[in-house]
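Objective 1b: paired records.
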Amino acid sequence: MDQLWSENGRVTPVTHLSVGPVVITQIKTKEKDGYDAFQVGYDSSIKKVSKPIAGHLKKSGEKLFRIFKEFKSSDTNAHAVGDTIDVSVFKVGDTLKITGEEKGRGFQGVVKRHGFHGGPKTHGQKNRLRAPGSLGATAPQRVLKGKKMAGRTGNETVTLRRVPVIAVDAEKGILTVKGAVPGNARKLVFIQTM
């Protein structure tokens, strides 16, 4: 993350994303597949793939890809298999949908995981400040499903919507968006216009 200063002294928190070029590997149509979408391949650093994937990639050229992602789009006629899409498709002022996997935080208690307030520090309580409290009524002699309790936190897919584009650097392949994006540095995120 970074911050940009405007002329009137306001600070805007931004994130710089390295947007690599992706190649369209397959186009799905409503007549053939039941919905309109296109599949893209990213990260051609791989040297060997399985035979089914190699056969799938014959139409898009002889490049091999490590990551595939499908994006639903109603405008599938604008692209062809083998076309390259880079950061220049985005413009300043566009709103994006960014999907990524958030940081893993391990096993956490209910205060951090669900935002519980905890018990009072005084009035006869000693070590129950961050405890969950009651787990339910007397009648069903079990803990009901879906009860908010301590457990593993993070490592979940998060989607941000309406994220504005602040700047585009087509030469370096850098896209600058407002605010934070899910995941840590060098984590893969999926970007599409809304």
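Objective 1b, second protein:
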Amino acid sequence: MNFKDLKLANSILKAVELEGYKEPSPIQKEAIPHILNGKDILASAQTGTGKTAAFALPLINNLLNGDKHDKKIKVLVLTPTRELALQVRDNFRKYGINTNLKCSVIFGGVNQRSQVETLKRGVDILVATPGRLLDLMNQRRVDLRNVQSLVLDEADTMLDMGFIHDVKKIISRIPVERQTLLFSATIPTEIKHLAKELLKDPITIKLNNESLTVDKINQSVYFVDKINKAKLLLELLECNTLKSVLVFVRTKHGADKLSEVLEKNGVKNGVIHGNKSQNARISALKNFKSGRHKVLVATDIAARGIDIIELSHVINYEMPEKAETYVHRIGRTGRAGLDGNAISLCNVEEKKVLRQIEISIKQTIAIIAEHSYPAQQAITTNSHYNNRRNKGRNYSHKNYKNYYKRNVSKLAT
């Protein structure tokens, strides 16, 4: 199947070709025909699977059949973070480059004046974070009475961040007769309840997200004591193959602390988290994308919306609390058919999380045992488990890829 088979307008097909897309991804094949037909959608899809194009392309196509001159908001996209909002806005503009449709974005952390002026000039497609949108609605600065299609992007993250109450307030003030598209990396019980409340006879799309991620990414883990993680990270960053590295930490304080350590050791880096101003976050991301900085340190929430095609490595400096977060993290690399690499630094306290991750993705992660700062306790604890995983052998940084190809097998669940 190619994009022509999806019956998209020629103006959109030209934009798709300009972006270098060859054929639709699984989520695009599934979702686009139903969205073109006006159906509500409940889709489970990770970032990196092409989900933005899955809803943006058909929504643009549907708008081409209506009044393109009144410049009233007809498509509303709600996202959990500023970075994701900007990314979605940029994608809509790329896909609609051959149309007269106007797409804009509003989010908090910056002065609202320019956003209000843009709304006054007229917008067809609005991408927004819930807090700022609700604020402007209360000021009567934004009119949503003409919304035809609503998209909730990364709904599970909005739930985690406590935005669902604001989202429901916003939805109560847009037309009941509309198309609603709900995209979420995971579908927990709360999201199921939300979908039941908002969607009408929806088409449910669920991709095998974990297998899509792990199949294209080389994964490895280093067992290392917590005190030596920074030293090992610095050593790894000396390797020329680590060209662009997104480093994940759990907390804002931890992100700032690690960034300072890297800077003191001559590693130019940026850092993004919830306490950073919008200008600081945009600057950090710009420096990273341009190659000025080799490393970007980020918390999970702040990293939502980071879409960098040629990201060579993701490093889990601290293991995530949930297996699905791991999948989401490493999904940042290995995009657009390129090789992806994910490295985890795991101390003995985090080993239980590692086991849960392997069970979730139904795959073992290659242990790199021979390095400068091994944590012997972590390597030798539960020898039966480790023997089952690597057959009693240690693997060095140099030969782990060969091991990975020869010996990786699925765990019994």
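The chain has a mean pLDDT of 85. The CA atoms of residues 134 and 265 lie 44 Å apart.
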